[in-house]
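ugh ok fine here u go
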Amino acid sequence: MYWMITNRNLEAGGFGSDFADLTYWKSIAADPNDLVNFAAWQQLAPEAFQAALVQVADSFPHPLVTPSEDQKHVNIFVPGFDNSWSSAAQRYGKIVSNLFSGPNSMGECILFNWPSKGSVAEYLPDRSEARQSADDFAEVLSDLYDWMSAKQAMAAKNPADACKATTSLIAHSMGNYVLENAMNVVWTRKNRPLLMSLMNQVIMVAADVDNDIFSSGDAVTHGDGEGIANLSYRVTALYTGRDSVLGMSAGLKHFGKRRLGRSGLDRTCPVPDNVWDIDCSTLLAPNLDGVQIHGAYFDEPQCYVLMRSLLQGTDRSVLLASEAMPDALPRTQ
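structure:
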C-alpha cells in the first residue's frame, strides 16, 4: 500500500503547485510506476487515513519479541525542491520498491508531497514555499507525536500495548529545510524539555541547509537543527562535494555558509553526539554530472544498502567496518 499526505491544491488530473489544506491519500497500485497516475490515488478523511495506517502497523511484529534491526518502520519521505507532484511520487515509488516492498520490506512509507514549483528556474522562491510547507508538516508531526505519547502511556500500564512501529524519516534536498522548520515547531510546542523521541532514524540526503545547522551542539538553545537533533535518536547526513546544485544554492541565496549536502558537517562547530555525516561520493556513478548527482542517491542500489543499514539502527562502529559504507568514510564518528 502507498500513502501520501499533501498540502498541494487539486487540479484536473492531479495536484498543482499552490497551497491548500492538508489532504490524505492511499493507493494499492500494483506497480509503483502507476503512482504518477492521479486516478491510482484514493482520498481519505484524516481519521480514516490514520485508522488504515494504524491497522497496518498493528500487524507488525511486537518489539518485545523482535530484534531492533528487524522491527518494522513507519517512514516519512520528504522530497526536494525540483519536483512536480508526479516526479515526487515517482521518486517515492523507487524508495518503496527498494526499502518497503517484498519479503524484506522495512514496513510502510508515507510521502509528504509539498508544493515545490518543480522548476530549477524557481529555485529561489521555492525556499519560501518550503518554509510555508513546514507549518503544515509540523501539524502532521504533531499528530504523530500525540499518538505516540498516548501509546507510550498505554505501554507503561501494559507492555503488550506498546507501539509496534519504529518511526523514521528520509528527506531530500530542500525537503530538509521543510524538516528543519517543522521539527523546531514540534520541539517548541510538544517536547521542550526532552520527554520522548519522535523519530528513531533521520536520513538527510543532499540537504539544502547550512552545514552548521547543528552548531548549538547538545545545548538547549534556539539553534536551527535543535528540533531535528533533540527529537531524533540518530541523524545521518549523506553528502558529496560533487553536487553542483547545492553549489549553486550556496552561491545564490546563502552568505558565508556551505550546504550540508555538499560539504558535510561544519567541524569547527560543536556537533550533537547523535548526529554524523557520510561522504557518498564513491557510491555515486563517476560519469554523472554535478546536476544529476543531486538526486542520484535514489538511483544507486548501494545507497539503498546504506540507507537500510542506517534505518535498522546499525551502530556507527559496525557501519564503519561494513561493506555498506562507501570507500570514503566519514571524517569522524
